[in-house]
Amino acid sequence: MASALLRHLGSMAKLGTIGFGGGSALIPLFEKELVQGRRVLSDQVFTRDTVVANVTPGGLPTKLAGLSGLRIGGVTGAVLSGFATSAPGTLMVLGLIALFGILGPGGILAIEFASVGISAYVVVILLQYVLRLIRTAPQPAVAATITILVALLTGLDDLIRLAGLAFGQTWETGLPTLSSVTIVVAALVLIVLYSLLTGWRRRSATPQPPSPSVGGEAGGDGVAPGERTGSLVRPALVSAAVLTALMAAGFAAAWAVAGVTGLAFMGLIALSIAASFGGGNAYIAVGAGFFVTSGMVSADAFYGQLVPVANATPGPIIMKLAAELGWGFGVENYGLVAAVVLALAALIQGVAVSNISAMLVFAGYERYSDAPMLKDIAVYILPVIGGMLVTTAANMTVTSARFGELAGVPAWAMVWAFAALACVIAWASRRFRLHDVLVILIAGALTLGVLWGIWAA
Fold it and tell me: How far is residue 137's CA from residue 386's CA, in Å, rounded to a whole number?
């Protein structure tokens, strides 16, 4: 058990190190690592965890890490896995912020140039995941239709902008789009209504067979060995309690270095994360409302330093921004030691708040996981997530084109070069069976070298 947990924590740290794009962009990376690679979770279990992570507030990768850690290592795995995924990017961000005066804009620029190659790898994983979930769906045509519809509802503006950039045009439509949380909630409502209607029709049309007895031979109720996870309800609740205690420790640390003001600041961090449905990009708006509007952080610092650094580094954006806010508040008001303490306390709040909500929802979900309605949710929510991932891929491509423009490369050329690099990555990974980390290092080094050379010239 200990060795399995250590390996899992290493995997979570790896995903937190290579996971550019944040939020839903990391779902395929988790799926590839846990389901296809290490095969510690089944498709069905991973889908359940993805549903829980999408309907609760906070950092989605942090919740996926905590839920998978719960299954593999119990309470210890649930608590530590969220930190394993969140810590690498957060520490990187704090290091960059601390050295910002030395590195200047060039340091951030280098990260952005390298992120173009890494983003190409992530986009390949995203699109492969979407195609696979459509191909393996019970009704592929229905899954494809849902995926396309959700992509249009959440990212039509990005898709049109991307098409324009590919042809050297600027197509800014300003079309309204739906947030990911709105889409997920609306989809869940529709799936529940559909399940209730079809269930009523099935009960009316045919007599119900007697319910299978609980226990007996594995698979007697259609559930594969290891799929019954009712025993995880209690560990999930204990994990929520432990994370609540860690939250309290974070508040105590903030009070120790900054008094009542530190407590109030940490309370705002926790509340802002609890209010952030929809992932990292949503937290940018929420964080601005809590901290910029209140005057605690200047708009120039928030949008000019904190957000760019968070976007240019890997890992959950929510955790990185929370730690940056803690660091900035501490440096400005109390000194370096307080900045370190407040940044780490903010990271604790981010992981704890995210995973407390996930563990509580998980406990209820797992108790009734064999209900027909929840099975319908597991089937139809995946194409919804697939549509959001298409939007994420388009957004990452547009962002990479913008980074290329900073080096002096026309946006249209960057779009086609990005697409070509993605194709090469997909081909080379399959042809030579290259390790993911090696692909990422090569792609990141390639775009850093090329774009930096053009920029320097």
Answer: 12
SS3 letters for the chain?
CHHHHHHHHHHHHHHHHHCCCCHHHHHHHHHHHHHHHCCCCCHHHHHHHHHHHHCCCCCHHHHHHHHHHHHHHHHHHHHHHHHHHHHHHHHHHHHHHHCHHHHHHHHHHHHHHHHHHHHHHHHHHHHHHHHHHHHCCCCHHHHHHHHHHHHHHHHHHHHHHHHHHHCCCCCCCCCCCCCHHHHHHHHHHHHHHHHHHHHHHHHHHCCCCCCCCCCCCCCCCCCCCCCCCHHHHHHHHHHHHHHHHHHHHHHHHHHHHHHHHHHHHHHHHHHHHHCCCCCHHHHHHHHHHHHHCCCCCCHHHHHHHHHHHHHCCCCCHHHHHHHHHHHHHHHHHCCHHHHHHHHHHHHHHHHHHHHHHHHHHHHHHHHCCCCHHHHHHHHHHHHHHHHHHHHHHHHHHHHHHHHHHHHCCCHHHHHHHHHHHHHHHHHHHHHHCCCHHHHHHHHHHHHHHHHHHHHHC
Per residue of the chain (457 residues), give pLDDT as tens.
678 889 999 999 998 887 766 666 778 888 888 998 888 888 888 888 888 887 788 888 899 999 999 999 899 999 999 999 999 989 988 887 777 656 666 777 887 888 888 888 878 877 887 898 888 888 899 999 999 998 898 888 889 999 999 999 888 777 777 766 677 778 878 888 888 888 765 555 545 444 333 333 333 333 333 344 458 889 999 999 999 999 999 999 999 999 999 999 999 899 888 877 655 555 766 676 677 766 777 665 665 567 667 766 778 878 888 998 998 888 888 888 999 999 999 999 999 999 998 999 888 876 666 667 766 776 787 788 788 778 878 888 888 898 899 999 999 999 999 999 999 999 998 888 777 778 878 988 999 999 999 999 8
Give the contacts of 450 (CB within 8 A, at least 6 positions apart). Answer: none
Task: Confirm whether pTM is higher than 0.70.
Answer: no
Query: CA 76 to CA 243: how far, in whole Å?
Result: 11
One-letter amino acid at 125 equals I
